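Example record

One chain of 277 residues, shown exactly as stored in the release files.
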Amino acid sequence: MSAIDGLPPLAQVVRAHDLAPTKALGQNFLFDLNLTARIARAAGDLTGHDVLEVGPGPGGLTRALLAGGARRVVAIERDARCLPALAEIAAHYPGRLEVVAGDALTLDPRAHFDTPPKIVANLPYNVGTELLIGWLTADPWPPWWHSLTLMFQREVAERIVAGPGSKAYGRLSVLANWRGTSALLFDIPPQAFVPPPKVVSSVVRLEPGPAPDGVSLGTLERITVAAFGQRRKMLRRALAPLGGEALLERAGIDPTKRAETVDIDGFLTLARHLEAP
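Predicted structure tokens for this chain:
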């Protein structure tokens, strides 16, 4: 698909700018503009919204976001080789694309937005989870962003959306759904990328909700680190350093349960009782 905006096909752009993907930056380029358009649509109606994109590369998803009606896209790109290709997109959409050269792990993008942006990105596998955790633990809450529509490797996506009883359910599941909701939307096969990764990719949507009363991130992390750090043990053993059976009884949770069987409300209740005098 090359008629999305009249610009050249992505494969042609990559050849023109000699943009061979590099493993060190976790780059896997998605050339199919039908798929990038599908990711953009997964973020909902973009009309009137600002969007933050991380790791645009040659700009396939960037073009889909702009063609999909985003008021403005701020794209953070670490690879300087990609900047000329992105500049061509910016020239095609005057005043609607701002490219920020730098590392998304160290840059604070909030100064670029007057209203909460939608964050939409095909995240590099090597930094995706770290970026997500940073966005989920932002304070104050509700966060500075409107929603998250992100691509991860399938294994990470399953951990984000997993519920109690699932083998994938763990600390990331609790954190991702502590202050909001998450959903796995669709998969993208390896052959859609250049070079093809060894795993299936998945697009996940996260929506923020109200912050639960009386629960701090630090306390919730203490509980989940202890509980899932020894997930094969009963909670009375895993949580022994934090009060063990007495804490569980105050929270009304069976001490013989294991971490993967406790829902998020259960972990929040444990955190409240751990913080209580």
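Notes: The CA atoms of residues 199 and 251 lie 40 Å apart.
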